[in-house]
Amino acid sequence: MHLWLPISLCTAFFDSMKDVFSKKSLVQVDEYIVAWAYRAMGFPFLLPILFFIPIPEIGPSFWTALIVSGTLNLITTFLYIKAVKSSDLSITSPMLTFSPVFLLITSPLITREFPTFWGICGILLIISGAYMLQIKEKSKGWLAPFFAMKKEKGPRYMLLVAFIWSISANFDKIGVKNSSPVFWSLMINLYLVLTLLPFLLILSRHKLKDIPKHIHTLLPMGIFSAAALLFHCLAIRLTLVAYAISIKRTSAVMSVVWGHYIFKEKGIKERLLGVLIMILGVLLIGFS
């Protein structure tokens, strides 16, 4: 078993925990505050790491990668908010599982990475399993998100998010290769904190007083977000971007568990098939 696999699974775990606290926060906190906080609250916990690691040599493509990835992630932040606000999560979230499919196209073009045949099979299995997990209302059919794109903006926005992430993830790898996983994690986080700040001050300036009142959910969200970002950068340093992102999408399995035990959501038994399919996909990628 390759080292990057458990690291990617840690990414999925931290990402799923970040989502738990994001969901808790969004009940009472403005979405723009949440979007900024999940970057800003984690940054102080990443910053001290600089005192324990050598500053890496910055490669020639570092700043280009930072600007491109940072700007793309800034755009997806707002698209994600628009998607969540305009449509139900049950028809928007499944669109994110298609980012590994887009990576099969973008990674060869940007980073010259080509998965193996069994790796591609594993990616497709993970996407299929995650898609099945996200569709809660079977009565609407498995293709409900695609049909919904005709009449709702949310799924269209989220599919665009998945496509943009398939580009930014490749520039994350370029940034990591031109510095180090830890240093890149810090810099991309700082870039997003600073670029999101003006939007926060303009769009949510009258609600900033809510931050101290809800620090008990915003702070854990930021810590888990920072951990997910750090492990993500470590994983893409060690393997193909498409593989790392595919394993990251297994956070959907964990979300099913958290949803059942924390938010008392129903339907966990019906989603076991999706879980099993995703696990098979993980094994195919891990041993390919």
Strand content bin:
under 5%
Secondary structure: helix percent: over 70%
- Subunit organisation of the chains: single chain
SSE string, helices as H and strands as E: HHHHHHHHHHHHHHH
Quickly count the domains: 1
Main beta-sheet strand count, sense and barrel state: none
Integer-rounded radius of gyration: 18 Å
Distance between the termini: 10 Å
Estimate the global geometry from the Cα principal axes: globular
What is the mean predicted local confidence, pLDDT? Answer: 81
- Output the structural class: mainly alpha
Secondary structure tally, helices: 15
| Low-confidence spans | none
Q: Which key features would you list for this structure?
A:
288 residues, mainly alpha
Would you kindly provide a brief summary of this structure?
With 288 residues, this protein is mainly alpha-helical.
Please tell me about this protein's structure.
The chain has 288 residues and is mainly α. It has one domain (4-286). Helix content is 73%, strand content 0%. It contains 15 helices and no strands. The longest helix is centred in the N-terminal third of the chain and has 25 residues, at 62-86. 50% of the residues are buried.
